[in-house]
Structure formats: structure tokens, C-alpha cells
Amino acid sequence: MARRILGGLAILLIAAGIVSIVPALRDLVSGWLPSSFAKQTSTPAKPRKRNSRPVPVKTAVAVTRPVPIHLEGVGTVKARSIVAIKSRIEGQLFEALVREGQTVRKGDVLFRLDPRPLQARLKEVEAILARNRASHAKAIADVKRLSNLSAKGYSPKTLVDDAKTLVDTLAATVRASSAGAELAQLNLDYATIRSPIDGRVGSILITAGNIVKANDTQPLLIITETKPVYASFGVPEQYIDEIRTRMATSQLPVLVSTQGKQAAATGRLFFINNQVDSTTGTIELLAHFDNRDEWLVPGQFIRARILLSTLENAVLVPRRAVQINQAGQFLWVVRPNGIVELRPVVTGPDDGDDLAITKGLAPGERVVTDGQLRLFPGATAQLNDGKVTAIRGGRKSGKESKQRKRDKGAQQ
User: Fold this and answer.
1) Residues 233 and 213 in one domain
2) Is 158 exposed, middle or buried (CB count within 10 Å of its CB: 0-12, 13-18, 19+)?
3) Rounded to an integer, what distance in angstroms lies between the CA atom of residue 333 and that of residue 361?
4) Could you write out the DSSP letters of every residue in 72-141?
5) Closest C-alpha to 148, from 137, 135, 136, 163
6) 3-state secondary structure of 305
7) Does some domain include residue 50?
8) Which domain holds residue 304?
9) Are 316 and 363 in contact, with CB atoms under 8 Å apart?
10) What CATH number should be reported for the domain holding residue 240?
11) What is the pLDDT along the chain (412 residues), one digit of tens a residue?
């Protein structure tokens, strides 16, 4: 009996050894074996290999060129002069000689008030002036006659003094009448309202036939000077010293662009404000623009750039090639054999759609600009034109090798 038991145990041990060695038998009898034995005898899973197929990408070659370094700020366009046209006298608006949106020059006639009451007042004041002048002339003659009689003893001296006093009084009356005549003439001139500046007319707020009050709260129209204009914008306060140094040696060009138009207008910086805005930490700058084509409109939002310096021989790549991860900015660089490499870089100033790389990239290297999501270090890059850039094991991979396999299968 003992021999039978020992023989059965021996047969079980031999069978277990065979099952552990042969994987096919182990899988066949895994349901009859204990779970602990099945776990111990199971073969560890092999790690899956990444897809070795070429990844289609778009690339660009890093180039070198000078890059201008700009200081940017946002602001608005300001008119150099804005004049609200009001009447200086009261009267009826007789004629409007200006249209809305018209460009006017300094001295152009805008409105005419009814001049007839003013002309009548001027004639009245001139008549009073003539009467006072005649009285003054008669008083002077009386002083002469009384002075001669007083010298001969025929007239008392008090009469001479009274005559001289009358001359001085009438002289003051003549001056007052003359001032009244000048005021009446000035009011008559005010009946013709002229433009005080060159500019563009806004909305006309009154029409002919209405009564106009002197210095009314509502203006007749508003004229805005549009040529030239100023651009007001703010920059961080830490750049004040650098800007002042540049302004002392040369004129600083300022480029502005608007939301509706990407083309930039060029002006010159001429003013730095005398205080920093404590709420934003910026200081206001003003730039002068000729604005001959009236491209800039007062009150318009603008983005201004000041050319501070130029970075020579900068390495540039398209902005979309630069990626960001937890470690910072990086690029996917395609080696000459077509294998991609993750390269950490340090970026610098931009130049339109291109970005300068100050560290981590050499001129002439090829970088990936599209298709980065499917890349991993060591992946094979395939250009968007269908050409495979990597050769592995002496055989070409990608669409070309697959097509050859398909052609051979069809021939067989």
C-alpha cells in the first residue's frame, strides 16, 4: 500500500514538472491546478512594443536672420485738437455752409447768423461816437478862447479850469464810444462763424432757421483734427531709462496696428509722461503720426511697438513648432536619419509667426511643426509629401515598402 502511494506521488510530481515546462500543456490543465500553482507557473507577459510605423509630420528648417526687439504696449489714438464750435452772440442761424464729415481748413466759413440787427447796432454806436467827437472838439476850442481872455484879464480863471475839465470828460466819452463801436463791429464779425483749425467735421447739431444762444451748452458741431494725430500707450516702468537713453541719441520709431487692419503706421516717440500710474505700474508715452491718409481715427484702440534693439543672427523656427510640458518648452527635432528627438529649448523674442530660439537648437536643423501628438522619442518621422525619412535594417519602411509587398502578393 505504501509503495502504491509513493508511486502515485512520483507520477504527480513528474506530470507537474512536464506541465510547468511545456506552456501548451500548462494552459490546457490550468483549470485543474490550484490558483497559487497557476500563478507561480504562469509565464510573465512580454512588454508591448510601440508602433514602429513612421509618423506623418510637417517640418521646417531653422533659419538665421536679424530679429528686431520691440517693446509693446496698448493704448488709443488721440486728436491733437478737438474744438466744439459755439456761437459767441445770440441770433438766428441764417445759413449753414458746412456738411457732416467735411474736411475744413482754418478760416473756412461754417455758419452765418442774421447780420441785420448787428449792422443797425453798429450804425447807432458810430453815430454816438461822431456826436461825442464833435462835442470834444468844441470843448477844446472853448478852452483856447477862455485861456486867451483869462490872459488879458477879461475872464476868471475858474471858467478856464471848468472848460479843461469838460474837455477831459468828453475825451473819455469819445474813448468809450469808440470801444462800443469796436464791440459792435466785433459782434458783427461773430455773425460769421469760421473754423479755428484744420480738421474733419462731425455731426451738425443745428439747422438754419433756429435761434442760437451765446455760449450755449450744446455746440453747433465738433471739429476734430485728424492730421496729425497722437498715439497714447503705456509701457512697463522698468523700461523708462532705456527709452530715455535711446531718445537722447536718436528718434525712436513707433509702429502701431489696429484690430481691423494688420498693416502698421510708423511715427516717432516725442513725449514721456512725468509720473507712473501706480495702479498699473506703467508710464504713458505719446507718439506723433502724420496720418496723411487718415488711417488712424481718434479714440481708436491700437497696439504700439517701439524698436529698442536688434538681435543679430538669431535662430528662428515657426511658433507652432514650440511645445510646452512640465519641464518647460521643447521641440521635436528630426535627425538626418529620420529619428525624432525631444529637445528642451529656451525661446527669445518673436518676429511675426516665427520665434527665436536662444538655446538648444542649431541653424539648419529640422523641427516638427505639425503632428507632434503622435511622436515619442525614437519615433520615425515621415514627411507630409509621402517620403520616408528613416531606413531601418536595410529596408525602407512606410507606404513605399507596403506597396511593394502588395504588388508581390498580387503577382503570386
Assistant:
1) no
2) exposed
3) 9
4) EEEEEEEES-EEEE--SS-EEEEEE---TT-EE-TT-EEEEE--HHHHHHHHHHHHHHHHHHHHHHHHHH
5) 163
6) strand
7) no
8) 71-80+226-310
9) no
10) 2.40.30.170
11) 666 676 666 676 676 666 555 555 455 545 555 544 444 444 444 444 455 688 899 999 999 999 888 888 999 999 999 999 999 999 999 999 999 989 999 999 999 999 999 999 999 999 999 999 999 999 999 888 888 887 877 778 888 888 889 989 999 999 999 999 999 999 999 999 999 999 999 989 888 889 999 988 899 999 999 999 999 999 999 889 889 988 888 888 898 988 766 667 889 999 999 999 988 899 999 999 999 888 899 999 999 988 888 888 999 999 999 999 988 999 999 999 989 999 999 998 888 889 999 999 999 999 999 988 989 999 999 877 444 444 333 334 444 444 444 444 444 4
Q: Show Cβ contacts of residue 189 under 8 Å, excluding neighbours closer than 6 positions.
A: none
CATH number of the domain where residue 151 is located = 2.40.50.100
Specify whether 75 is located in the same domain as 102.
no
Element (H, E) at 147: helix 116-152
In this structure, are 275 and 327 located in the same domain? no
As given in the structure block, the three cell numbers for residue 302 are 491700437
Q: How far apart are CA 70 and CA 55, in angstroms?
A: 38
Closest CA to 157 of 166, 168, 148: 148
C-alpha span between 264 and 261 (Å, rounded)? 8
Radius of gyration of the chain (CA): 48
Judgement on whether residues 401 and 277 belong to the same structural domain of the protein: no
Q: What are phi and psi of 397, to 5 degrees?
A: -110, 165
Cell of 155: 475872464
φ/ψ of 69, rounded to 5, equals -100, 115
**Number of domains into which the chain is organized:** 4
373 and 278 within one domain: no
* Contact present, 258 and 307 (Cβ < 8 Å): no
Nearest-angstrom CA–CA distance, 329 and 342 = 10
Calpha distance 251→253 (Å, rounded): 6
Helix (H, G, I), strand (E, B) or coil at 162: helix
Is 46 domain-assigned? no
User: Rounded to whole angstroms, how far apart are CA atoms 220 and 207?
Assistant: 9
Same domain? For 189 and 108 the reply is yes
